[in-house]
Design a protein that fits this description.
By secondary structure, the chain is an alpha/beta fold. It is built from five helices and ten strands, in the order E-H-E-E-E-E-E-H-E-H-E-E-H-E-H. It has a single domain (3-40, 74-206), classed as 3-Layer(aba) Sandwich (Rossmann fold), CATH 3.40.50. Helix 1 crosses helix 5 (192-206) and helix 2 packs across helix 3. The chain has helices at residues 21-30, 75-93, 105-116, 162-173, 192-206; strands at 3-10, 36-41, 47-50, 56-59, 64-67, 70-73, 98-103, 123-127, 147-153, 179-184. Keywords: Hydrolase. Residues 7-204 form the Phospholipase/carboxylesterase/thioesterase domain.
Length: 208
């Protein structure tokens, strides 16, 4: 039996793993594999108080706090969940290839994990997200260069579209040269056109 190609997708604040089912369904339907089979993982974030929302408990990968009119992350909770997911992913994939993806909060994790996991992914998808706590990220020195897709809405009121450019610049500074950044006329969400672009990009990225 051929080996799995793992696809990990991390959802945004207040959602759950099923929120990203349209992405995983589209990828597994439209991106055929010859030497592997798809193994999809859409984990649920733990339920914890979110300072930005008055301490209301909800599914959240890490805490968000207000900082002089902007949104910042709690460094300790972000570092903690990153370490937990590093171990979980390593345990699940073993030596198999894998792909990371995430929306908003989940995209923060996809970016961090793509740069910090001991064995890098072959590709990463980062949607409507931002570069959080870059001082915690040691720039990789192993020559890793996964294909990256950054998608962002031009009308996003929660994470302004310029966040995509900042993330792209940081990834480039980390040595990643195969980064695709695309913008879409949407707020904090994903358009069908974006899903089409993701599946086409991934199919091309996985082709020999």
């Amino acid at each position: 039996m051929n080996r799995p190609l793992h696809l990990f997708l991390f959802h945004g604040l207040g959602a759950d793993g099923d929120d990203l089912a349209p992405i995983s369904d589209l990828i597994t339907e439209r991106v055929p594999l010859t030497d592997h089979h798809w193994a999809v993982h859409r984990p649920d974030a733990p339920v914890s108080p979110v300072s930005l929302n008055g301490g209301m408990p909800m599914p959240s990968w890490f805490d968000l706090i207000a900082d002089n009119g902007s949104i910042d992350v709690d460094r300790d909770s972000l570092a903690g969940i990153t370490a937990d997911l590093q171990q979980e992913i390593a345990d699940q994939v073993g030596d198999d290839p894998y792909i990371l993806g995430g929306f908003s909060q989940g995209g923060v994790l996809a970016a961090r994990l793509a740069l910090t996991l001991p064995r890098p992914p072959i590709a990463a998808i980062m949607l409507s997200t931002w570069l959080a706590a870059p001082e915690q990220i040691a720039k990789p020195t192993d020559g890793r260069n996964p294909a990256v897709f950054i998608g962002h809405g031009t009308h996003d009121p929660l994470v302004p579209v310029h966040a995509a450019g900042k993330l792209n610049a940081f990834l480039t500074d980390c040595g990643l040269t195969n980064v695709t950044e695309r913008h879409y006329p949407v707020e904090h969400g994903i358009l069908p056109e974006e899903l089409d672009d993701i599946s086409n990009w991934l199919r091309e990225s996985l082709s020999p």
